[in-house]
Amino acid sequence: MGATKTDHFTDHQNQIAIICKALGHPARVAIIEYLLKVDTCICGDIVNELPLAQATVSQHLKELKNAGLIKGNIEGTAICYCIDKDAFGILKEYFSNIVLSVKDQKCC
């Protein structure tokens, strides 16, 4: 079996791509913004905040969790979600380095 396209890139490049892909949908951005706003673990309120069906919201939560942007803890029959600070630290470092590099470039 041949190598996948992601095999040609570093683990860090793949990690950044996975995180950015997860943020590539406005519903997921809205979920992140809501979790930041409430600043606590949320169990069922996310569905009430978005104009989407519960199953759709669950799928978006799954994508965010798989990318490491949020954490989910089981509490009774519900899963409570909160921001995973580590992933945002990775993004902060990555984009800070880009901003600094672009700022110093002597380009057209």
Automatic annotation (TrEMBL):
Keyword DNA-binding recorded: yes
Top-level lineage group: Bacteria
Keyword Hydrolase tagged: no
Annotated InterPro entries: ArsR-like_HTH, HTH_ArsR_DNA-bd_dom, HTH_MetalResp_TranReg, WH-like_DNA-bd_sf, WH_DNA-bd_sf
SMART domains: HTH_ARSR
Keywords: DNA-binding, Transcription, Transcription regulation
Protein name: Metalloregulator ArsR/SmtB family transcription factor
Organism annotation: Chryseobacterium pyrolae
Upper taxonomic lineage: Bacteria, Pseudomonadati, Bacteroidota, Flavobacteriia, Flavobacteriales
